[in-house]
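Researcher: Here's a chain I'd like modeled. Treat it as a single chain, no partners, no ligands.
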Amino acid sequence: MRAVARVASAGALCAALAAAPTVCAEISLPQGPGVDLVYARCRTCHDLQYLVDSAGLLPAQWVSVLQSMHDYGLKLSDAEQQEILGYLTKYLGPNPPPSTQTAKAGADTATAKTARIDGHAVYERNCASCHGAEAQGDAQRVPPLAGNDDLQRDPLLPVLVVLNGLAGPIDVEGRHFDSSMPPFDHLSDAQIAAVVNYLRDADDGHAVTPSTVAFQRSRDLSPGEVRAYRARTH
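Model: Modeled as a single isolated chain. Structure tokens:
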């Protein structure tokens, strides 16, 4: 009955969250295929506490939750919806597998050493829904990344923005923006390096490395501190 009640209240919850400011809580989800997409899509409007609290729902109930979120503005392709649903039903369903955090961490380390991560693919999955397929941004609320001098002026700035988010008014290419970007610190160091290098069109001689990202991650800046750093580099 408790699970059914949670589903019944999903619409009301989504309505409240849609009207509330973006919140980025420090919540870790079980590791597994699709978790990056859940982080990228589900926390663009709210934190992930609702998903954690809803662990144990049946597949049909997760379908209802996704439909409620879609009704309140979440835009997903069919493939993305199936991937998110697959993750939720397997890892937050009634019979989740044992934790794979340790195994995945080891696999990620080995993969980073032997394979080149596709920065364009990382961008499409995590950034394009807001910044646009061509990184053109949204004239009303989201700064463009294509042709943005911030990316070329200081390679550390985009790393810090991806890791920690950015909050407060800024001017980009003669246009004023006043919105917030959540941190995408669930991405690995190698993924962040790959997407930053993709956006900067950096060759190997000027590319950001995963070790650079790892060091910047340890600084643990707030979105406001990232904005202050940006102001100092202008």
